[in-house]
Amino acid sequence: xxxxxxALFVHIVGALLLFALLTIEGFTLRTGMTAAQxxxxxxxxxxxxxxxxxxxxxxxxxxxxxWAVVGLATYVLIAAVGAxxxxxxxxxxxxxxxxxxxxxxxxxxxxxxxxDMTVKPDLIASAAVVAVGVILGVAAAVxxxxxxxxx
Length: 151
Ligand code: HEM
Known about the structure:
Layout: H1 3-31, H2 36-60, H3 66-90, H4 96-119, H5 123-145
Helix pairs in contact: 1-2, 1-4, 2-3, 3-4, 3-5, 4-5
The chain binds protoporphyrin IX containing FE.
């Protein structure tokens, strides 16, 4: 057992928490319930658990490789768009359909980061994987974009 292994454990717990929060967000979008209070507490805990050990591992281990840079940039985007979506849904300023697209795209991006973190491709390939995650998220949102035509 060493500090790097413990940092990796905390980092993975943070990533699990991120996916738990995304799952709860998807559930609340469908049911119209709100999880804002819980997100306000668990969101920053997940961010700290991902970022602090993530930075430590980058500096102690592989350095700023392509996948680490793309992982950090993508995570910042996921957190910023997530906060923007949450605040606007809470204030009634965002349609459920837009919030659903935001949720699916962030889920695709988070899955892409897990791929990058485990497979560790170079910068271009890592960014391409995130682009594929975004495209899959948008593709999954297509059924919600189609207007229902009356029979
Ligand atoms: C969406 C956010 C993130 C998710 C879901 C995520 C997920 C993961 C997972 C599952 C692993 C384990 C990979 C393995 O052991 O094979 C890992 C490792 C790692 N992550 Fe992240 N991560 C995220 C963000 C970040 C960020 C922002 C950084 C850097 C600032 C980072 C740096 C690292 C490093 C250095 C490793 C260790 C790789 C190794 O030694 O094998 N991660 N991450």
